[in-house]
């Protein structure tokens, strides 16, 4: 993976930050972050922040790996969910994912990889997640047709489908892991560490036969419906 160019969209407070740390520090991968400048963590060394795609092409030539992690969520039942909030979630999670893929394809030359992040709500949405679950299921459904359409360009498309991870974002929201409801009786009886998400990304990148697949990363954790 050394010297690969990876573009990642994320708020850098969750699983995306773990990807940046692993790729830069351990794998010596060039990382480009597509996000607001205020979101960048200054303590990550060798970090490039480039927003316009033409700058990316000028400086790096092409994108080898595109990791699409940017996402927002809002838990509200339909009785109280405004159409404005509906549009915002769909616009970021669904339209944003599709839009970024369209812009990345011209920068991907050969044997490249697109990794989108969905969420277990795509399969098991809970009360208050009607809109969020919808936005994430669309991402899962994209994988197959995208993989077929991009096969002639040797571009693979995969999804990672995580549940709640113990991240800095979770801690910033002052959510105690011990207060998260769920069945922790099954192995491995804990929330995932954000670096374990990054390990899944690495596995997908390193294995050329992984294509058109949605990988659940939740250790059998099942949340209650409420």
UniProtKB/TrEMBL annotation:
Keyword Oxidoreductase: yes
UniProt keyword Phosphoprotein present: no
Keywords: Oxidoreductase
A molecular function GO annotation: estradiol 17-beta-dehydrogenase [NAD(P)+] activity
InterPro entries from the UniProt entry: NAD(P)-bd_dom_sf, SDR_fam
Gene3D superfamilies (alphabetical): NAD(P)-binding Rossmann-like Domain (3.40.50.720)
One GO BP: fatty acid metabolic process
Entry GO CC: mitochondrion
Signal peptide: none
A matching Pfam family: adh_short_C2
Protein name: Uncharacterized protein
């Amino acid at each position: 993976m050394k010297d690969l160019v990876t573009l990642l969209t994320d708020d850098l407070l969750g699983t995306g930050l773990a990807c940046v740390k692993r790729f830069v520090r351990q794998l010596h991968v060039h990382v480009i972050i597509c996000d607001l400048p205020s979101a960048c963590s200054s303590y990550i060394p060798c970090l490039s922040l480039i927003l316009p795609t033409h700058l990316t092409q000028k400086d790096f030539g092409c994108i080898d790996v595109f990791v699409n992690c940017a996402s927002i969520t809002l838990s509200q039942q339909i009785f109280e969910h405004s159409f404005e909030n509906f549009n915002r979630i769909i616009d970021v999670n669904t339209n944003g994912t599709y839009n970024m893929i369209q812009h990345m394809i011209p920068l991907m030359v050969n044997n490249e990889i697109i990794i989108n992040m969905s969420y277990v709500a795509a399969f098991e949405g809970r009360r208050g997640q009607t809109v969020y679950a919808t936005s994430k299921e669309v991402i899962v459904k994209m994988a197959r047709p995208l993989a077929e359409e991009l096969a002639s360009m040797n571009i693979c498309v995969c999804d990672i489908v995580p549940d709640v991870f113990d991240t800095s974002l979770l801690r910033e929201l002052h959510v105690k892991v011990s207060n998260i409801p769920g069945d922790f009786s099954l192995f491995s009886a804990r929330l995932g560490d954000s670096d374990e998400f990054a390990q899944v990304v690495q596995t997908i990148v390193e294995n050329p036969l992984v294509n058109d697949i949605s990988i659940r990363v939740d250790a059998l954790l099942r949340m209650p419906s409420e």
